[in-house]
Amino acid sequence: MGSSGKDAASRGFASGEFVRAAPSPGGTVVSAVGYRRQGHSTALHRGLPSPYLTLIFSLDGPVVTGRTPGEARGPDAECAGIVVGGLHQSPTYVVQPERETGIQLAVHPLAARALLGLPAAELAGPLVVEGADVLGRVAADVRERLRALDSWQDRFALLNSYLARRTAAAERMGAVRPEVAEAWSWLARHRGAGTLRGLSAHVALSERRLSAVFRAETGVTPKQAARLMRFQHAKTAAVRAVAAGTRPDLAGIAADCGYYDHSHLVRDFRQYTGASPTAWLAEECRNIQAGAYGGGEDLRA
Fold first, then answer.
1. In angstroms, rounded to a whole number, what is the distance separating the alpha carbons of residues 52 and 219?
2. Which structural domains are found in the chain, ordered by start?
3. What is the value of pTM for the model shown?
4. Dist. CA 56–CA 63, nearest whole Å
5. Radius of gyration of the chain from Cα atoms?
């Protein structure tokens, strides 16, 4: 995760700001976004499933989330100053207060052992986990130091240094099985459009055995991971079209991303966003135009 002025790009608007840092070498951190938002009335945002883990350091109050809008706004909401989220199959609802500042990272799931000290599968059950419970007391100290800094460059540099130290000390966690690592790479190369049979033959494991070891590491099956990757590509294509001021060609996007047809894409959008593609894009248009979306995904940004 780069921390220099060259590596960071900023997009500002009337009452908010999004600042991006370069991804980390080796793909451990896929994206890093600093965000600042103020002056809006309290709102509810949909955090979408993706093929990446979520790590958020809130620099204001805690991040408040729920599995449904009612849960997010009610007494059973999850609250965390440092948010760790696993791979999920449905949206998370996030309360956006009038003021919020933080840094959100999209973390490669196979880097969970090195960066978080546990396999990604251990994060698959809860909606989110309080990061200090996973990362330890040092993470809480890092959060306080981040809050005391004024520049995004300094914040990214501090966070990069902290994560590098954690990764360097990760040998005790053991390695990801090579079949699982290769299976993930194969799915990514095929952008989620490959078949389980083809993947199984590629890594020389039966479909049943591959699904078991893959899920034990990541918390999802290869088929679920493929769907998340395919959806990520489709959503990114639609977002880019909106950001460019054009109307997304959803049928064309469906064909390019390996969906059977337009209705297949709509079904995945409804599962992962709780809305049709058109309705979700209309809801998120302001965030898209403000530069809130990038390579990773996202409870907050």
1. 12
2. 15-171 (2.60.120.10), 177-300 (1.10.10.60)
3. 0.89
4. 9
5. 19
- Local structure of 255: helix, strand or coil: helix
Q: Phi-psi category of 270—alpha, beta or left, where left has phi over 0 and alpha has psi -120 to 50? A: alpha
Q: Which of 107, 40, 90 is nearest to 231 (CA)?
A: 90
* Strand, helix or coil for residue 171: helix
Residues 116 and 84 sit within 8 Å (Cβ to Cβ): yes
The per-residue pLDDT for 10 is 43
Check: CB of residue 167 under 8 Å from CB of residue 114.
Answer: yes
Query: Which has more pLDDT, 281 or 22?
Result: 281
- Whole-angstrom distance, CA of residue 264 vs CA of residue 245: 25
Phi, psi of 175 (to 5 degrees): -95, 155
Digit-coded pLDDT (tens) for 204-254: 999 999 999 999 999 999 999 999 999 999 999 999 999 888 999 999 999
Identify the CA nearest to 134 among candidates 190, 225, 57.
57
Contacts of 237-246 with C-beta under 8 Å, sequence gap 24+, read 238/277, 238/281, 239/281, 239/284, 239/288, 239/293, 242/281, 242/285, 242/288, 242/289, 243/288, 243/289, 243/291, 243/293
> Position 144: which residue type?
E
142 versus 286: the higher-pLDDT residue is: 142
End-to-end Cα, the chain, rounded Å: 17
Of 301, 300, 6, which Cα lies nearest the Cα of 153?
6
